[in-house]
């Protein structure tokens, strides 16, 4: 395995061919041109190094700013105390309501999106004829291209107008955002399950539905959960749809999904427009916790993907 | 359920063999219903948004698309999307212009140049950038990036090139179109770069080796072989990035300042379709204003669906051209 990779590396490495090009080019005029070509090449390669460095540096800069600016408010009060609007005293306050709301809303969204996403993937992968398979794939891509704020407007028009906001409606809008993501990753994971497993099961006379539910899905569960964690990490920071569905809130810590609940992203959005520096610090601190959750979830899930892929496909 | 049956009707028999079992049919119907419901959902979203903006469409007419106005005073209400469309186009294309070279450069670094031991970590870090919530990038844009730009790049550009209308005087508020462009560029950079990286990995090794064997430098090989080979996919990735930039509401709202005017000055405040909706909807007082906001959402939906479907179409065309499986690259 290692030797094969080294071989590919060596084959891809162009230095040997470049030397021979120089030897062949002969007259000094050609050499001048070669020198210029090489200079252009080196400049472009330097540009590519720089681009990658900039991309990584931006991430570092954002994480570092969030951590350093939130440090003063990063304590236990943040998750245990409720906010006190227009507070004139120095009484400790936090954003416990936002943490509770985010857990409720994201949790419910996952509960809604996961089964539907798995069912779609099962249909596409195990039952659908190729034409419908392509059609559902296109629908999923189109749905993932609908801007989050339009999803917010949609739920607002469908459910909020007339009856008011609630956490449940907020989680429904997040579930719509998660759905194409969960379905897509599950389709990919199910496609990795070897057909020999299905054939063996069917050959033993087990019905197709039992094969799907007790052979195919259990085999793929690790990959499906990894995809779900990535989807959760993506919607946990969503603000736009929640503005329409769960943003008119009180300051009490509340776990009831029938009420509109505060969430971390919406709290950050509102605090960022406040004139008080302490509010900003709390926004940064809450942002830091959210960011750490998202970074660890997505990096962790990414690290598990390779392992699951190997385990599911049996190679 | 009635809609579910249409797609769930098996066009071939389930793969069970002789008899059709109840369990098979139920799982197929339930799973098919989920797929059909998702299809219906896309239609329902479109219909609901059209329905919600009906009042505005009737009252505002076609002039809404180009009119530059946002006056919610009852009795003198006048709404137009002109400045917001302009703001959306300027910010999203500006972001694409900035992000494209960086994204392609980073993708080339990861596929061609990077030493093996940092390839994995750098790939993960760049993709992690896509996971940073937009509200945090916006917060960072207000309090870190915005002030930094105002005293550095914006200041220098205005001092040196102030005679170009693009680099006019800076806004007093500190928010600017320029900050919004950079924030959006940061958000679409990881998307474009991770798609491009996969495309570059799919370029057949024999083509690359062939070019190098003919004596090209590595850059000439990239320009002459890899870019043309991946052109369709890169175009699609750029359009997807554009769609993402157009639809981003929160981060743009936080840094763009909000003013319903058309200005060529990048350092002044403005508004995009998405940011106008996010910043105004809570204060909407009349039904016409709310409906006009939803009409902005309708324009946004049409634009992003158009971008998305174009990109998907290009991807499928390209896949057909190159053959669906790409030479077994992981």
Give the tags.
heterodimer; A: 315 residues; mainly alpha; MetI-like fold; 2 domains; 78% helix; disordered N terminus; B: 330 residues; two-stranded antiparallel sheet; 13 helices; 2 strands; disordered C terminus
Low-confidence stretches of chain B: 1-10, 324-330
- Name the helicity range of chain A: over 70%
- Helix- and strand-based class of chain A? mainly alpha
Counting structural domains of chain A, the number is: 2
Q: Most extensive interface, residues per chain?
A: A-B, 98 and 103 residues
Q: Report how far apart the termini of chain B are.
A: 40 Å
Question: What's the arrangement of strands in the largest beta sheet of chain B?
Answer: 1-2
Portion in strands of chain A:
under 5%
Mean pLDDT of chain A: 86
- As a whole number of angstroms, the C-alpha radius of gyration of chain B is 24 Å
Give the proportion of residues in helices of chain B: over 70%
Count of β-strands of chain B: 2
Which superfamily, in CATH terms, is the homologous superfamily of the largest domain in chain B? Answer: MetI-like
Q: Oligomeric state of the chains? A: heterodimer
| Alpha-beta classification of chain B | mainly alpha
Tell me what the structure shows:
The complex is a heterodimer of chains A (315) and B (330). Chain A folds into two domains: 2-72; 96-313, Orthogonal Bundle (MetI-like fold). Chain A contains 13 helices and no strands. Chain A has helices spanning 2-12, 15-25, 28-70, 76-80, 96-127, 130-145, 148-160, 167-192, 195-203, 208-235, 240-245, 264-271, 277-313. With 330 residues, chain B is an all-alpha fold. Chain B has two domains: 2-52, no CATH class; 82-322, Orthogonal Bundle (MetI-like fold). Chain B contains 13 helices and two strands. The two termini of chain B are 40 Å apart. The model of chain B is unreliable at 1-10 and 324-330 (pLDDT under 50). At the A-B interface, α1, α2, α3, α5 and α6 of A face α2, α4, α5, α6 and α8 of B.
């Amino acid at each position: 395995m290692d030797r094969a990779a080294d071989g590919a590396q060596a084959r891809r490495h162009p230095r040997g061919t470049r030397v021979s090009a120089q030897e062949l080019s002969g007259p000094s005029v050609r050499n001048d041109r070669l020198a210029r070509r090489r200079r252009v090449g080196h400049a472009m390669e330097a540009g590519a190094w720089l681009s990658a460095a900039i991309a990584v540096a931006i991430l570092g800069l954002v994480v570092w700013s969030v951590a350093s600016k939130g440090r003063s408010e990063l304590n236990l009060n943040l998750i245990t105390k409720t906010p006190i609007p227009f507070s004139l005293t120095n009484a400790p306050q936090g954003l416990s309501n936002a943490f509770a709301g985010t857990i409720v809303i994201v949790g419910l969204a996952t509960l809604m999106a996961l089964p539907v996403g798995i069912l779609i993937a099962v249909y596409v992968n195990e039952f659908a004829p190729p034409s419908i398979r392509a059609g559902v794939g296109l629908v999923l891509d189109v749905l993932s291209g609908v801007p989050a704020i339009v999803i917010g407007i949609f739920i607002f028009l469908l459910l909020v107008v007339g009856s008011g906001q609630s956490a449940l409606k907020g989680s429904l809008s997040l579930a719509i955002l998660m759905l194409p993501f969960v379905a897509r990753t599950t389709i990919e994971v199910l496609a990795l399950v070897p057909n020999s497993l299905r054939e063996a099961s069917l050959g033993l006379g087990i019905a197709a539905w039992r094969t799907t539910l007790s052979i195919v899905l259990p085999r793929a569960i690790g990959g499906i959960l990894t995809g779900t964690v990535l989807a959760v990490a993506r919607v946990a920071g969503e603000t736009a749809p929640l503005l329409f569905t769960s943003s008119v809130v009180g300051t009490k810590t509340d776990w009831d999904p029938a009420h509109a609940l505060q969430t971390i992203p919406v709290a950050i959005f509102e605090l960022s427009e406040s004139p008080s520096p302490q509010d900003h610090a709390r926004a940064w601190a809450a942002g830091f916790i959210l960011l750490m959750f998202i970074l660890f979830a997505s990096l962790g899930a990414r690290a598990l993907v390779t392992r699951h892929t190997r385990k599911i496909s049996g190679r | 359920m009635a809609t579910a049956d249409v797609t769930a009707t098996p066009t071939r028999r389930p793969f069970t063999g002789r008899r059709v079992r109840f369990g098979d049919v139920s799982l197929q119907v339930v799973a098919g219903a989920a797929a059909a419901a998702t299809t219906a959902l896309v239609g329902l979203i479109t219909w609901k948004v059209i329905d919600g903006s009906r009042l505005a469409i009737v009252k505002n007419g076609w002039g809404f698309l180009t009119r530059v106005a946002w006056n919610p005073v009852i009795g003198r209400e006048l709404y137009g999307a002109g400045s917001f469309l302009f703001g959306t186009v300027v910010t999203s294309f500006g972001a694409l212009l900035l992000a494209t070279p960086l994204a392609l450069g980073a993708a080339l670094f990861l596929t061609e140049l990077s030493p093996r031991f940092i390839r994995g970590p750098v790939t993960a870090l760049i993709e992690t950038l896509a996971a940073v919530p937009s509200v945090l990038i916006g917060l960072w844009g207000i309090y870190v990036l915005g002030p930094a730009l105002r005293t550095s790049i914006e200041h220098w550009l205005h001092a040196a090139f102030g005679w170009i209308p693009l680099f006019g005087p800076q806004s007093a508020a500190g928010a600017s179109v320029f900050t919004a462009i950079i924030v959006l560029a940061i958000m679409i950079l990881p998307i474009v770069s991770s798609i491009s990286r996969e495309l570059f990995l799919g370029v057949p090794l024999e083509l690359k080796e062939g070019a190098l064997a003919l004596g090209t430098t590595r850059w000439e090989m990239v320009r002459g072989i890899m870019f043309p080979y991946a052109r369709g996919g890169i175009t699609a990735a750029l359009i997807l990035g554009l769609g993402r930039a157009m639809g981003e509401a929160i981060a743009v709202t936080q840094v763009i300042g909000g003013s319903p005017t058309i200005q060529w000055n990048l350092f002044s405040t403005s508004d995009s379709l998405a940011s106008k909706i996010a910043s105004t909807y809570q204060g909407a007082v009349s039904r016409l204003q709310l409906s006009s906001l939803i009409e902005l959402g309708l324009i946004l939906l049409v634009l992003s669906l158009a971008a998305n479907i174009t990109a998907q179409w290009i991807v499928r065309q390209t896949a057909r051209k190159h053959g669906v499986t790409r030479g077994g690259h992981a």
